[in-house]
């Protein structure tokens, strides 16, 4: 092959890989940022926050195998992995209890900071259908569950306890010593009160 043909060939191959990469990026963006990508009847576990689909894994905090722990799971891929930790280990949209989800910020839970009271979080569990949860509380805490803006107020048990109402609790770090906690109650729980 002549030098000219070799250069043209390299340019064509380069453009092919460039456009393939762009195509993959567009596919990823449209597939994994829209709630419409799951097939009807497909049963998976995920949250929808701000129209973004966030898959989660039911793990819980009782797992003694460090390699299979919730912390290990979210550390493996901070941009995508969410796990249940406190409350009930397996999210069930109808058990009238709390499930506590953990994820990283920066990372998969970066959007927690943009949530506001009365925003909707949709949860798809592997037991029932989708259920909407309404953001009812947003708090900043330290690692022991103490509220940052109020002295002597600890909400640790509320965050990680099973409780007696249908709700979810989402938690992510804001810094090495501060966490954001978003509590959302099931739509029917809000209507009853």
From TrEMBL:
<feature type="transmembrane region" description="Helical">
    <location>
        <begin position="7"/>
        <end position="29"/>
    </location>
</feature>
<keyword id="KW-1133">Transmembrane helix</keyword>
<keyword id="KW-0812">Transmembrane</keyword>
<dbReference type="InterPro" id="IPR005754">
    <property type="entry name" value="Sortase"/>
</dbReference>
<keyword id="KW-0472">Membrane</keyword>
<dbReference type="GO" id="GO:0016787">
    <property type="term" value="F:hydrolase activity"/>
</dbReference>
<protein>
    <recommendedName>
        <fullName>Sortase</fullName>
    </recommendedName>
</protein>
<dbReference type="InterPro" id="IPR023365">
    <property type="entry name" value="Sortase_dom-sf"/>
</dbReference>
<dbReference type="Pfam" id="PF04203">
    <property type="entry name" value="Sortase"/>
</dbReference>
<keyword id="KW-0378">Hydrolase</keyword>
């Amino acid at each position: 092959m002549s030098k000219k043909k070799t250069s043209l060939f390299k340019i064509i191959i380069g453009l092919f890989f460039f456009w393939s990469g762009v195509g993959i990026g567009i596919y990823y963006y449209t597939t994994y940022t829209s709630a419409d990508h799951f097939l009807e009847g497909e049963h998976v576990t995920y949250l929808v926050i701000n129209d973004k689909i966030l898959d989660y894994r039911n793990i819980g905090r009782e797992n003694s195998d460090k390699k299979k722990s919730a912390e290990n799971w979210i550390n493996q891929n901070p941009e995508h992995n969410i796990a249940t930790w406190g409350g009930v280990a397996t999210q069930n949209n109808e058990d009238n209890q709390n499930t506590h989800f953990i994820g990283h910020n920066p990372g998969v839970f970066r959007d927690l900071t943009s949530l506001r009271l009365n925003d909707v979080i949709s949860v798809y569990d592997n037991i029932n259908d989708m259920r909407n949860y309404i953001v009812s509380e947003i708090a900043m805490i330290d690692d022991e569950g103490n509220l940052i803006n109020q002295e002597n107020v600890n909400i640790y048990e509320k965050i990680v306890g099973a409780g007696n109402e249908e709700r979810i609790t989402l938690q992510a770090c804001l810094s090495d010593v501060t966490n954001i906690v978003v509590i959302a109650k099931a739509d029917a729980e809000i209507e009853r009160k």
